[in-house]
């Protein structure tokens, strides 16, 4: 009975409590709003109906509503609040008259502007410090024809809140104040304004992305107008501006790289960041091809005042990105989180917890690889960080549901997963409010996020450390009164009540709404300090209120419950970050006062945000960052060069003089940690004055001795070296790898104590490299800043096969080839192939007994990106060490990462990728057939001209940068008597003609052929002058020939009249010329004659005489006009290197030990000497790949056999930057020069081209200025040099092309002319000449045209007929070489092929397209350091050691093949 009375009493109390909440007020609206907005810290809320174009206003937090007074009905197309004054807002119309309130909507006043409203989504820009400073984006239209008009955006400004307004700038797309946030420093000019606008002067009056620039002014573009160049000296680098944003303290500009693509369609984006509006830094991302910045593919997410967060799209088809977080100045980013989830609009699932520094929630996609294979739904996993993105972890799930029942979740992957920003279900922030520590979310517990209608509602009261389920089902949620009250509304079905709780979600009660609605929104004032809420919903069709409108605002007022106000005793101190080890961030802890969970009171203090309190922490290492002039290397800050010091600091009064300099560290700006009792890293340290930057005119050096001999060195390639430190790796004989991030100034081991067998650079991603150990690998994605250790599935293969293969488009995709059961002489030793799609973190085995496996796709070979090609032995048993010709190689194609295998050929010698073709050498009956494919699955047989039989010749494919292939055909392969003929193809590579006879090569098949980098058509070749004699004596006499018309004609090089001492040469008769040593004699394949940055300059070692003499008897020569005129610059043979675009030349004696270098700043006119200390025997001298600075590294070895690196810095020899004045070229430090100035013909390849180069006598540094911009003056008339001999024709003694003896001419070429030009009426018979494919000459003489015939009937043939004629690629000579090398190494029949990484798209000669007779990677810049294995002691028994090219792999498409009949 007592129990019954208790229950009745409880029900009575509950009914009284419920009755304390009367039926809420409901206001019906005809249309849903596009915005509901609260004036900050007020009770005024606005409702914008975009359909009726009406703004409704409520001054009592949503209880009652009325239209905005003074604004005509149907005029409001937009509504914008003033972000820095909570009394001001604007209602915008389509016209020139708009409305403004200065009293939170009580009174609206009209104002006029000169132009209609722009279509820009943010037409107003506000000043953070001056409320009346506003920018207005308008649209001005002019009638061009009676039925059309032309419109363009124009920006206006007002300094008095639109009492008046004036034009700021025309042709704008966006304008902003520098002071668009309160975090911009006060020292920045308050009037500084930025506009993204079009500069049509460079585009012929038309708008284009390349004409979009960022303009700045501090006087409203009256007299002071500047184009922001972002600190780049290349004018084009500042074009292509697509956006400007101000986030926290960061001004951010997004710029498309239009230097190579003026349209910007496929151009990559660059981000530039400034803290003051004047100094801009390029944002450096440690990403590669999968994370490049493209328009609409990056999102600047919620950031703090001490770092910037950017999410970069890296899986466009599946909307998956990578989150990067910056340093304090926003210029260097580190990867924070991979595979972040985003939607198609670019919204990223990332949100910081309000009021708690360093805590954030993000969602990642866990099945990216599955989505790449086939269309699948994302599997979303939620992650949380407590240290500002430095580390992430899964969200710990609750163990019980709302009823106390256990939640089944036993998987290791079990976690709590929440819906986030990409799928919003309410207004404002997704998870948190200003209520300290309270976080709500809708999600599920399991391995990944469940569908929304299968989710539940969860709460954390400690900023995400622990969670509990508060209600079954998905709900909209809101928090009020600083966390005292929570409200939930059903978000799955229509409802007539909401849940509310006064004790942190422990107990919930219902509040009846008085109507049934489908809830659209639940919100309260933004600071969550009120007990009043509004709920927006859609009424059912049967609701009695439907006549007033289908949609309704329901006003919920929990203040009517009249609870007592909390006292100080009801409050508790809550520490904001309670995750273990993460309490301190930016040098301090955070805490708040908040209400205890079990007290029954309200907090009050409406519109007063919770007050944050801080407690400073002792300084730790993470509170510091690298100081200016220092970079991070292996976790330590190291100097990038000599430290700048003030005048008078180092006076040179004593040899041991010291100074106090930077430790390399500085406290992160804004960090509040206390040094007392903490780590102090920024204390100045005493340094020797030799480490300081020298006075102008001085050279400095640093010498480092390695513990053993160097076997190879490799730069990280970089096309924008000015933005990233120049990092170089060195590999030693003992397996150690050393690294320098400052061009050799200091060295460190990335992995001390580790024995590295091979060094690989990513072939397509400049930021990535791999160090291969015996059972593990170390990889970097940020140019060696950090190295990650990962396990290998097997030890590296012992068969001298390429270990790592990289993907051209997906930089995380790798193929690895290891060895299995090869530790002993017994067992089934074999090579096994694996692939990874997550950058070596997980490997999947897919083939055994392989010789080569690689991705079929290449830059121009656009095959299925998941297609893998594998050469593997047919009989997969036994030891691969013993396999011979009886176990043939098969070629397999594996689709879907080799899951679907197709046998392409039963017996092959290899495959190669060349340009857009895939080539396979198939073994036929005692012959080798070439198979050609465009898709990797279907093949056509290639045919050679009669003179190109493969059974008696060796071939070396040289290059094809000028739309034709140079091919070396060996005609003599006896030891010591190797030479052949240089052939050149027509435009599609199907027919070859003789270019030069008796071209020299060595035993390995390399050829003395080199094109000049940067100048089309200039090449140097050594020929054998005594072929008959050398065939017997095996002693070749070499002479040098040069061509200036791409091999059309060759001639001796004109010798200089006097030597470097001013004396005439002994050889002065007609047969005397200049001869230079070529590629076949080089120790370092990268030491080319010319440089891509020094147009026209070549340096070579040689002699004047009748033939080439020994290297040690030679001298050093230079030409600055592309080889027309030469001068001797120094006696004796020297190594050489170009620096700063040729403004600094450095020589080092190459005939014996030396302790000095020679340098010249006037291109060899005079030389200065610099001594660097103890003598060394120089091995090579290098500078960074781009050769645009003045720092060099001299590698050599001491008399004791230890290798040394001498860092030589010529940066201080002059401080003046060369002036480049494109608008006034007569008064700058450059000249326009053309190779045609030195030759009879004014044109090359049918056009006259000018190059910009530094004047020889100017004492200045070039730096990053792109001075070698080309300007085609005109296309020229065709002359004799635009033509060469046709197939089977050679030049006679008079220089005329005649048919070779015993040869037959090609058939008529009607198909090539009539079908290629449908407007052509006539075709011409072939003659003894053909036009050089690269020539653009027009009209003039046409010796290639024979008698003319009508095109009638030719075009009637079927498409397949003509396809069969034109299908054969010029690269058919390539794969055949594979056949020979596999069976016979460098014996008769050897061929060499260009590497698959070559860029054959280039139409102008450049670094990648103007190399000598070898693949580009042989230059050591692209892929591999096989010497790491070949020179390691554990491998000595496996491979014989060879001299020369020790670092060069027999790899990828550079293999040499040989086919022998079975004997």
Write the layout of secondary structure elements.
Layout: H1 2-19, E1 25-29, E2 35-38, E3 45-49, E4 54-58, E5 66-67, E6 78-81, E7 89-92, E8 97-101, E9 108-112, E10 116-117, E11 124-126, E12 134-145, E13 148-158, E14 166-170, E15 172-177, E16 193-198, E17 212-217, E18 226-227, E19 241-247, E20 250-256, E21 269-274, E22 280-282, E23 298-304, E24 307-315, E25 320-326, E26 333-341, E27 350-352, E28 360-365, H2 368-373, E29 380-385, E30 393-394, E31 415-418, E32 439-446, E33 456-460, E34 468-471, E35 475-480, E36 485-490, E37 495-501, E38 509-523, E39 532-539, E40 551-557, E41 571-575, E42 588-595, E43 613-616, E44 624-626, E45 630-633, E46 636-639, E47 658-661, E48 665-667, E49 685-688, E50 700-705, E51 710-715, E52 728-732, E53 737-740, E54 758-761, E55 769-772, E56 776-780, E57 788-791, E58 804-806, E59 814-820, E60 830-836, E61 844-848, E62 850-855, E63 868-873, E64 889-894, H3 895-898, E65 900-914, E66 917-923, E67 928-933, E68 939-942, E69 955-959, E70 966-974, E71 977-985, E72 992-1000, E73 1009-1011, E74 1019-1024, H4 1027-1033, E75 1038-1043, E76 1051-1052, ...
């Amino acid at each position: 009975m007592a129990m019954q009375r208790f229950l009745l009493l409880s029900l009575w109390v509950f009914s009284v409590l419920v009755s304390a909440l009367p039926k809420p007020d409901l206001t019906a609206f005809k249309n849903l709003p596009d915005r509901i907005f609260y004036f900050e810290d007020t009770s005024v809320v606005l409702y914008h109906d975009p359909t009726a174009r009406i703004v409704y206003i409520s001054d009592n937090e949503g209880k009652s509503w009325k239209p905005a007074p003074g604004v005509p009905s149907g005029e409001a197309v937009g509504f914008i609040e003033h972000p820095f004054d909570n009394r001001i807002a604007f209602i915008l119309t389509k016209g020139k008259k708009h409305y403004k309130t200065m009293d939170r909507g009580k009174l609206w006043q009209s104002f006029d502007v000169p132009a209609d409203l722009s279509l820009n989504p943010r037409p107003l820009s506000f000043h953070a410090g001056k409320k009346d400073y506003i920018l207005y984006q308008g649209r001005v239209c002019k009638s061009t024809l009676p039925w059309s008009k032309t419109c363009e955006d124009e920006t206006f400004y007002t300094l008095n809140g639109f009492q008046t307004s004036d034009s700021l700038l025309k042709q704008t797309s966006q304008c902003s104040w520098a002071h668009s946030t309160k975090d911009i420093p006060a020292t920045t000019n308050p009037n500084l304004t930025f506009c993204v606008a079009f500069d049509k002067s460079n585009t012929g009056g038309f708008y284009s992305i390349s004409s979009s620039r960022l303009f700045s002014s501090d006087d409203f573009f009256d007299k002071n107008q500047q184009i922001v160049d972002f600190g780049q000296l290349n004018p084009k680098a500042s074009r292509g501006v697509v956006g400007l944003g101000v986030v926290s303290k960061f001004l951010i500009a997004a710029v498309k790289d239009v230097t190579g693509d003026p349209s910007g369609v496929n151009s990559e984006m660059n981000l530039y960041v400034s803290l003051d509006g004047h100094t801009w830094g390029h944002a450096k991302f440690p990403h590669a091809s999968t994370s490049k910045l493209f328009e609409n593919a990056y999102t600047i997410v919620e950031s703090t005042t001490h770092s910037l967060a950017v999410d970069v799209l890296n899986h466009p088809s599946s909307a998956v990105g990578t989150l990067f977080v910056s340093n304090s100045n926003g210029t260097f980013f580190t990867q924070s989180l991979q595979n972040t989830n985003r939607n198609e609009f670019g919204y990223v699932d990332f949100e910081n917890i309000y009021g708690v520094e360093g805590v954030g929630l993000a969602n990642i996609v866990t099945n990216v690889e599955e989505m790449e294979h086939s269309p699948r739904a994302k599997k979303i996993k939620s992650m949380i960080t407590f240290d500002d993105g430095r580390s992430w972890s899964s969200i710990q799930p609750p163990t019980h549901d709302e009823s106390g029942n256990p939640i089944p979740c036993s998987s290791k992957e079990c976690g709590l997963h929440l819906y986030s920003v990409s799928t919003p279900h309410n207004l404002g922030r997704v998870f948190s409010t200003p209520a300290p520590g309270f976080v709500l979310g809708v999600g599920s517990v399991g391995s990944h996020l469940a569908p929304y209608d299968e989710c539940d509602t969860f709460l954390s009261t400690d900023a995400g450390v622990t969670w509990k389920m508060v209600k079954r089902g998905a709900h909209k949620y809101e928090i009020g009164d600083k966390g005292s009250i929570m409200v939930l509304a059903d978000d799955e079905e229509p409802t007539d009540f909401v849940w509310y709780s006064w004790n942190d979600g422990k107990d919930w009660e219902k509040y009846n709404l008085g109507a049934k609605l489908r809830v659209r929104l639940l919100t309260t004032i933004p600071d969550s300090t009120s007990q009043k809420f509004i709920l927006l919903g859609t009424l059912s069709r049967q609701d009695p209120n439907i006549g007033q409108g289908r949609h309704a605002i329901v006003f919920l007022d929990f203040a009517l419950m009249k609870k007592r106000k909390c006292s100080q005793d009801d409050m508790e101190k809550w520490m904001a970050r309670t995750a273990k080890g993460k309490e301190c961030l930016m040098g301090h802890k955070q805490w708040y006062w908040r209400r205890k969970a079990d007290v029954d009171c309200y907090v009050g203090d409406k519109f007063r945000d919770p007050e944050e309190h801080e407690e400073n922490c002792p300084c730790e290492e993470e509170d510091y960052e690298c100081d200016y002039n220092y970079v991070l290397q292996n976790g330590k800050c190291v100097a990038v060069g000599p430290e700048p010091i003030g005048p008078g600091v180092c006076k040179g009064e004593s040899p041991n003089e010291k100074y106090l300099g930077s430790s390399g560290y500085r406290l992160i700006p804004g960090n509040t940690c206390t040094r007392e009792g903490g780590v102090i890293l920024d204390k100045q340290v005493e340094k020797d004055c030799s480490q300081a930057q020298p006075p102008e005119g001085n050279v400095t050096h640093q010498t480092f001795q390695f513990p053993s001999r160097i076997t190879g060195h490799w730069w990280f390639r970089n096309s924008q070296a000015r933005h990233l430190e120049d990092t170089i790796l060195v590999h030693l004989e003992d397996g150690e790898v050393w690294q320098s991030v400052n061009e050799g100034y200091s060295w460190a081991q990335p992995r001390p104590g580790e024995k590295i067998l091979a060094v690989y650079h990513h072939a397509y991603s400049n930021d990535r490299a791999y160090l291969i150990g015996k059972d593990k690998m170390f990889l970097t994605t940020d140019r060696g800043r950090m190295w990650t250790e990962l396990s290998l599935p097997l030890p590296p293969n012992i068969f001298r096969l390429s270990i790592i293969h990289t993907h051209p488009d997906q930089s995380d995709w790798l193929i690895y080839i290891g060895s299995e059961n090869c530790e002993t002489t017994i067992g089934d030793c074999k090579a096994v192939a694996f692939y990874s799609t997550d950058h070596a973190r997980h490997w999947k085995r897919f083939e055994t007994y392989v010789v080569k496996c690689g991705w079929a796709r290449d830059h121009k070979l656009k095959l299925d990106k998941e297609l893998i090609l594998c050469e593997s032995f047919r009989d997969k048993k036994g030891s691969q060490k013993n396999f011979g010709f009886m176990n043939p190689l098969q070629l397999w194609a594996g689709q879907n990462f080799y899951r679907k295998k197709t046998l392409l050929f039963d017996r092959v010698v290899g495959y190669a990728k060349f340009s857009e073709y895939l080539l396979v050498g198939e073994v036929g009956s005692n012959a080798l057939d070439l198979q050609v494919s465009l898709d990797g699955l279907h093949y056509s047989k290639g045919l050679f001209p009669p003179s190109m039989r493969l059974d008696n010749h060796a071939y070396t494919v040289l290059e094809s940068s000028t739309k034709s292939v140079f091919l070396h055909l060996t005609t003599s392969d006896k030891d010591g008597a190797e030479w052949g003929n240089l052939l050149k193809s027509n435009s599609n590579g199907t027919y070859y003609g003789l270019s030069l006879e008796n071209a020299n090569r060595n035993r390995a098949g390399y050829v003395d052929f080199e094109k000049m980098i940067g100048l089309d058509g200039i090449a140097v070749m050594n020929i054998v002058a005594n072929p008959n004699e050398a065939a017997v004596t095996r002693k070749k006499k070499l002479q040098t020939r040069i061509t200036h018309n791409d091999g059309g004609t060759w001639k001796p090089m004109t010798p200089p009249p006097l030597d470097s001492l001013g004396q005439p040469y002994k050889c002065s008769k007609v047969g005397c010329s200049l001869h230079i040593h070529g590629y076949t004699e080089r120790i370092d394949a990268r030491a080319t004659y010319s440089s891509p940055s020094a147009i026209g300059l070549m340096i070579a070692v040689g002699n004047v005489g009748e033939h080439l003499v020994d290297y040690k008897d030679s001298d050093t020569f230079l030409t600055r006009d592309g080889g027309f005129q030469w001068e001797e610059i120094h006696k004796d043979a020297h190594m050489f290197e170009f620096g700063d675009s040729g403004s600094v030349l450095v020589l080092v004696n190459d005939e014996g030990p030396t302790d000095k270098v020679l340098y010249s700043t006037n291109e060899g006119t005079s030389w200065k000497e610099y001594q660097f200390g103890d003598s060394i025997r120089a091995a090579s001298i290098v500078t960074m790949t781009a050769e645009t600075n003045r720092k060099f590294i001299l590698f050599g070895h001491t008399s004791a056999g230890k290798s040394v690196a001498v860092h030589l810095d010529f940066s201080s020899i002059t401080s003046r930057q060369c002036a480049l004045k494109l608008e006034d070229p007569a008064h700058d430090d450059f000249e326009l020069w053309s190779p045609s100035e030195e030759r009879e013909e004014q044109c090359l390849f049918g056009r006259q081209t000018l190059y910009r180069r530094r004047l020889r006598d100017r004492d200045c540094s070039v730096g990053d200025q792109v001075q070698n911009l080309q300007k085609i003056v005109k296309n020229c008339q065709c002359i004799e040099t635009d033509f060469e001999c046709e197939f089977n024709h050679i030049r006679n003694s008079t220089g005329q092309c005649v048919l070779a003896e015993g040869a037959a001419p090609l058939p008529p070429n009607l198909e090539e002319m009539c079908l290629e030009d449908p407007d052509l009426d006539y075709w011409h018979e072939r003659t003894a000449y053909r036009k050089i494919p690269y020539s653009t000459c027009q009209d003039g003489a046409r010796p290639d045209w024979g008698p003319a015939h009508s095109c009638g009937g030719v075009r009637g043939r079927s498409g397949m007929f003509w396809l069969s004629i034109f299908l054969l690629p010029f690269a058919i000579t390539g794969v055949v070489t594979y056949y020979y090398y596999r069976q016979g190494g460098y014996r008769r029949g050897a061929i060499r092929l260009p590497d698959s990484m070559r860029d054959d798209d280039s139409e102008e000669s450049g670094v990648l397209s103007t190399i000598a007779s070898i693949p580009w990677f042989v230059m050591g810049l692209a892929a591999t350091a096989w010497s790491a294995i070949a020179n390691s002691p554990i491998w000595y028994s496996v491979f014989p050691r060879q001299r020369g090219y020790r670092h060069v792999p027999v790899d990828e498409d550079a293999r040499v093949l040989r086919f022998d009949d079975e004997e």
